[in-house]
Structure formats: structure tokens, C-alpha cells
Amino acid sequence: MTSGSDLIVIGGGLIGSALAWGAQRRRARVILLDEGDIAYRASRGNFGLVWLQGKGLGHPDYMHWSIRAGQLWPEFSAVLQEETGIDIGWRGGGGLHFCLSEDEMESRRFLIARSREQGAAIRIDLLDRESLREIAPGIGSDVCGASISDLDGEVSPLLTLRALQSGFRHHGGRMAVNFTAEQISHDRHRGFVVKDAKGNEFTGRHLAIAAGLGTTRLASQLGLELGLWPERGQIVVTDRVAPFLHHPSNVIRQTREGTVLLGSSHEDAGFSTGTDMETVAQLCRAGTRIFPALRAARLVRAWGALRIMSADGLPIYDEAPETPGAFVVTCHSGVTLASLHGLELGPALVEGHLGPAPCSMRSKRFAVHTS
């Protein structure tokens, strides 16, 4: 048994690591429990977008929450690099959503209008084909234009994860690797107790569950029913090519190293992280339709990863009703929201509350009401 901490964070992915890093920066005693390589690590297969345009449309609280995260990303990236010396590959300046028909252009006009109606503090412009060619000269003949947002950007998910965990340790945080949480209980003398199958345990005053697809099982022990489910996304990557795309897009991203990512799919495949040739071919066709020169690139790798989805696709931020001080944090936008989770939510959790997290994102919204 270990001595008690101020906060136990279950889950060493982007969400849990951001929360732990933010809490530890407050000079708290934080323990981060990481399942290790057996976890369905979303950051291993993430496209690496900080994406705001259209996010939360129809759900103003989520829209403003996400935009706040986008506004914090320059500061977040700078702080991580200053603390750890790790350049996480953050590049802002806007992201492109390509349109391949006039109907798609009209849909973007509608999205821009609705975003303004809902008070989104984000600038989204619609570029016609000629304007788009000034910043993306290699577009194919099917491309009609694109929308571009000032807050969208890109980052390396794996380097971000590495920087968060390095910064966490730099501030004195403790990390237990290859620890699979199986049982959670609360003791009025020791606080929250988290055990694995071998009986190893950690205790803490507060608890945050950010265990990805394992969150449902753990949260149910505290009276929270979440019903999370996996959605698979496949991505393909080419070999290095000369720089041609200086803005991330909804389907194509050229990394700083020169490789090109094409993605991603949305599939109901259970817990499979596999790939299939049909989907890979679809992604390649979509990418080469936008940039025909990619037909000459060599495909070197493809992978699948699982997103964590709630019933309505929105994040869940909640506190256990019968054991105050135990929290759940889950979402499928772990990259975009990492800045907010690290700089604002983590410090709030170690103090025993959800801070600025919108009340509309509690799990009670899924409750079945009967007359």
C-alpha cells in the first residue's frame, strides 16, 4: 500500500496525463495510474488536429468550451516546451475543410452562419477555388473551395503525451505504469482506494477516472452509468514528400517531417483496432482527389484506433453522487481539449470540484425519464 495522495488519476492517456500535469503544477501530491501498452491508447492513432470549426454546433456549451481550449493552445504548448524542452509540433494559423461540390460549399456557408448566430468567438472564412489555390496550389480540379478557421491547428499527439508525462514528473508527480485499476472504494479514514487484480492499491483524497473505454466499468462502481462505446478510425500515412500543405485539413495533414496522413474513417467495429483494404483505398482515393500529386507517393503504413464516444458524442464531466470528490472525465476530443484539461480542469479537480466544466455535460443527461 502507498501513502495517500491529494489526487489519484486513473488513465495515462492524453486526458488523464493532462489532468495530472495540471493538478501537479499546483504543488499537489498526485499519482497517475497508467495501464501501459495494453490500453486502447487513442493518442497512438490520433490525427493530431486541434479542430474548432463546426465543433459543438447546436450545443453552445460544448462549442464555447472547445473554443476556450483552442484559445489556450498557444500558451499550453509554450508552457510544455519551457518545462520539458519537448517541441510537441504545435502549429496554429488555421485549418482547411475542403469542399468537393457546390452543395458542400453551401453547407459550409450554413455552418458559418449558425456559428455566428450561436456567438462563437471564432473566425471562419469561406475561400473560393482561386483564393484557396494561393495557399494550397496543388489542389485537384474537383476542389471547389474550403473553409478556414483562425483557431484550428495541429500537433503531434505522441509528443504531447510525452511532454505531459515528463512535465508531470518534473513537478514531482508519481506515475505507476502497468497498473490496471479493477476496484474502487471509499474509506472515510483513507479516502478513495484503487486496487488492481493483485491487490496492489493506492489511496487518495480525490479521484479522477479518465480511463478511456475502461471508464464505464470503473464509474459504475461509483454509481455513474455512462454507456461509452468505441468508434474505430483508420489512418494511412505516406513516405516523406516535399512540403505542399502548410495548413492541417479535415482529411489530409502533412507532418513537420514530410509524411502525409490521410484519414480518417468512422466505423462501428467493436473493440477491433485493425485495418481493411477497402477503407484504406477509400482514404487514398479521397486524398488523391484533393491533391492528385499524392498518387506518386508511397503508402508506408496504416493503422486503426478507437475513439471514446458517448451517446450524444459530447464529453462527460461528472462527480459521483454518493462519493463526492470522485470525478469522471471522458471525451473523444482529447487533443483539442488537452489545453483546457491541463491548464484549468486539472487544478480544479485537485481542489475537489469540476471548475469551469459546463453543468450541461453531466451524465444525468442520459437518464431515462418515465412518467
UniProtKB/TrEMBL annotation:
SUPFAM superfamilies: FAD-linked reductases, C-terminal domain, FAD/NAD(P)-binding domain
UniProt KW keywords: Oxidoreductase
N-terminal signal peptide: none
Domain FAD dependent oxidoreductase: 6-343
Entries under InterPro entries matching the protein: FAD-dep_OxRdtase, FAD/NAD-bd_sf
Gene3D superfamilies assigned: D-Amino Acid Oxidase, subunit A, domain 2 (3.30.9.10), FAD/NAD(P)-binding domain (3.50.50.60)
Pfam families assigned to the protein according to its UniProt record, in alphabetical order: DAO
Name of the protein in question: FAD-dependent oxidoreductase
Species of the source: Nitratireductor arenosus
Keyword Methyltransferase listed: no
GO molecular function: oxidoreductase activity
GO cellular component terms given for this protein: cytoplasm
Keyword DNA-binding appears in the UniProt entry: no
